[in-house]
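Thread: Newbie trying to understand structure tokens

Hi all, I'm a second-year student working on a class project, and my supervisor (Dr. K.) asked me to get a predicted structure for one chain before our next meeting. I've only ever worked with sequences, so writing a 3D structure as a token string is new to me. If someone could post the tokens and maybe explain what I'm looking at, I'd be very grateful. Here's the chain:
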Amino acid sequence: MVVELVCVGTEILLGNIVNTNAAYLSEKCANLGLSLYYQTVVGDNEERMTTAIATAIDRSDIVILCGGLGPTKDDMTKEITARVMGRELVEDPHTRERIQAFMDNYIKSQPESKITANNWKQALIPQGAAVLDNHNGTAPGLIIESGGKTAILLPGPPNELKPMFEEAVYPYLRKKQPEIIYSEMVKICGIGESKVETDISDLIAAQTNPTIATYAKTAEVHIRVTAKAASEKEAKQLIKPVVRELKLRFGKNIYTTDENKSLEEAVVELLRAQHLRLTTVESCTGGALSARIVNVPGASDVLKQGFVTYSNSAKKKFIMVKKSTLKTHGAVSSKCAKEMAKGGNFTTGSDVAVSVTGIAGPDGGTPEKPVGTVFIACCLKGETKVREFHFNGNRSKIREQSVVNALILLRDCILENFKK
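---
Reply by user tm_fold:
Sure, no problem. This is what the structure looks like when written as tokens:
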């Protein structure tokens, strides 16, 4: 069954608000096993709205419209949809009563306010439409069925749309679509997207149900395995052998199969499991690495201290980088990164320290050390590993790649320590 989204509002086109409704509804439709091929955003213009709605209804089985159900003149979604589907507007007594009750309650806290005539516009519904009560506002939702087509009209504010969808629309669509779509995510770090895709090319070529899709992230690749079945239990059974095969192929590079878990959360879990206290020593990343760690609830259990040693004098003063190292090799060097990590460990008495030093640009590069040159070191229980990177992109992108690769190196060192 094909579903289509039409989001109404000039404010979306102008970028005044972010269209979070589309992301939310897309995910919900995917979970229901509905095929979504088109999303449209149209401004508050009668002619363009008529074209967009008529086109959507013509090519899709179900059209979900959000926005444009309010009391003002530019709220035209209901009126245009009714006209396109050949329905007259009639007043719904039940909805009028609800609007009256809502406004009466509002006036109690805002005595200077009064009900304006245009509010009753929201009590008009297309003849024969099912009314979806709005428990968080005045504009009701609507379901209009005609000639094998269905239009579902939802209010634009997310705090009204989401509860209405969960309470009324999801159960309605679930009955129409007997199959569901269920997905699991396999998150990989330390391997590029092209290699990951090459390594699973045989699985992709042979896929039917479930299907496999790869998504490139910064220094990560996420693989989504999706199955369609009559129930979630059956879908999980279809997915299970594929996920097992991915684990066999990528081993320790898989840091989680929990879609909601981030790389820093996985690293914090490892640190906590091995009772390790961490120190971060940063130069070009300016505290971004420790910020990622601190984003994780409970990070205080594992993060002992963070240094931002941006200048050479700070490197010497706080973490004991040798003057001779800075003079001979420079701040952006393998030797400096190693001394930063070791100095971080020694100064704080932590179990593990990670250091980052590099040239984020746009200036400061040389032929020998161009912009994007970054050294990352990890010192764990006296053993230090250093990795050299040459990143591409602007200053922000280089710093982001540095942080993610520092987390990856830290994770690798912890796993190796666990084996020992």
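A couple of things are worth pointing out once you decode it. The CA atoms of residues 285 and 399 lie 5 Å apart. The longest helix spans residues 395-419. Feel free to ask follow-ups in this thread.
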